[in-house]
Amino acid sequence: MKVLLVGGGGREHALAWALSGSPLLSKLWCAPGNPGIAALAECVDIGAEDVDALVAFAQRQAVDLVVAGPEAPLTLGLADACAAAGLRCFGPSAAAAKLEGSKAFTREVATAAGVPGAEWAQFTDPAAARAYVRQKGAPIVVKADGLAAGKGVVVAETVEEAENAIGAIMENRVHGAAGATVLIEECLIGQEVSFFALCDGEVALPMVAAQDHKRVGDGDTGPNTGGMGAYSPPPAFTRDIEAQVMERIIRPTLAEMARRGTPFRGVLFAGLMLTEQGPKLIEFNVRFGDPECQVLMLRLRSDLLAALRAACDGTLQQAELRWSPEAAMVVVMAARGYPGAYRKGSVIEGLEQAAQVPAAQLFQAGTARGENGALVAAGGRVLGVAASGETLQAARDAAYRAVDAVRWPDGFCRRDIGWRAL
Ligand code: AMP
Ligand code: GLY
């Protein structure tokens, strides 16, 4: 099969790595890709959000499958445009991608499907939102409705903090139009896990869970990021919990989306809180998590390409996924200053030595080739240094050994990935 992978981060490097191992693969392109992906795929200079150019390229090359990494092209209608052009696309239609694009939509679907989650209300009037917050008290969660690059959520410890968040989101529009509507949610207490299920519109196949580390600093301190590290499996996510999540959250959502005439095909990423009353939904995403995808791909033992094709063709019922019982961990190396302002262009060395650490696997995210072909930092999250191991501790030891082999003075990482489980 000829495959066009869309995106250029650590998630896409991990997907490219897994797809490369498929006996079904004859040719892999990646748009736009990155220097790490370039070792596995032919990188094409088309932006991940340039839907028209992506579809034109896929048609010209008679691609058998387009795989969307990030959510942006999906919310822009990549899957719809592929369908119209007679191309297979792994990823939901724009209508189904609303599960990530609008938090209010997700809450409506989840409520209709009877999915357990936080008590919530939505507001377009800041005064009404403030009154509700005062009535409910803290802690309480304030969210911009639309896409805000993962930064539109404030878990407020006090009523004052919540009211300030309402002002920033709705009145000062710090996230732009995404703040026209806010959601106010009950604050769920428990361990947070990411769970992934492959969906073909009707059938959902469980993948595995991972735990992300969203705060920038050790001990879960500092501002939220896209994710500073992840591991799988999280010991708290038992078989029994997985069964509950499939029965109460994933399958009812899939059924509700189908009933609405907008069936969900692709990977459904459920952000869950494991509360004392059982697993509850925090949010959905319509793509693999990053960095979670990196540990998922390290643990996947069956053919990713065959599974993605089955999800597109509506044949997941006959498909299977096999997973290594081993643990995997990824430590994200980011540019100093991230998630605030950071410098680009600093040189990264030592990747060859890092890759030689047994069981380690390096994925590149925000990297580019600088002058003389040197590898340089070109984004906030720059490297995913991953490893597998018989135990989580072994995976962690290998991952940090590889981190320590990377020579990049401008970079930093958290030193405590996996702390909850270790
Ligand atoms: P979201 O963008 O919806 O994933 O929210 C970002 C982060 O805020 C989540 O990963 C949680 O850590 C936290 N969060 C969101 N909603 C809630 C909630 N209702 N209760 C507790 N924490 C939440
Ligand atoms: N790591 C969280 C996300 O991909 O949204």
UniProtKB/TrEMBL annotation:
This protein's UniProt keywords: ATP-binding, Ligase, Nucleotide-binding, Purine biosynthesis
InterPro entries registered for this protein in UniProt: ATP-grasp, ATP_grasp_subdomain_1, PreATP-grasp_dom_sf, PRibGlycinamid_synth_ATP-grasp, PRibGlycinamide_synth, PRibGlycinamide_synth_C-dom, PRibGlycinamide_synth_C_sf, PRibGlycinamide_synth_CS
E.C. numbers: 6.3.4.13
Organism this protein belongs to: Teichococcus vastitatis
UniProt keyword ATP-binding present: yes
GO MF, any single term: phosphoribosylamine-glycine ligase activity
Signal peptide range: none
Involved pathway(s): Purine metabolism; IMP biosynthesis via de novo pathway; N(1)-(5-phospho-D-ribosyl)glycinamide from 5-phospho-alpha-D-ribose 1-diphosphate: step 2/2
Protein name in UniProt: Phosphoribosylamine--glycine ligase
NCBIfam families, per database record: purD (TIGR00877)
Catalyzed chemical reaction(s): 5-phospho-beta-D-ribosylamine + glycine + ATP = N(1)-(5-phospho-beta-D-ribosyl)glycinamide + ADP + phosphate + H(+)
Cofactor dependence: Mn(2+); Mg(2+)
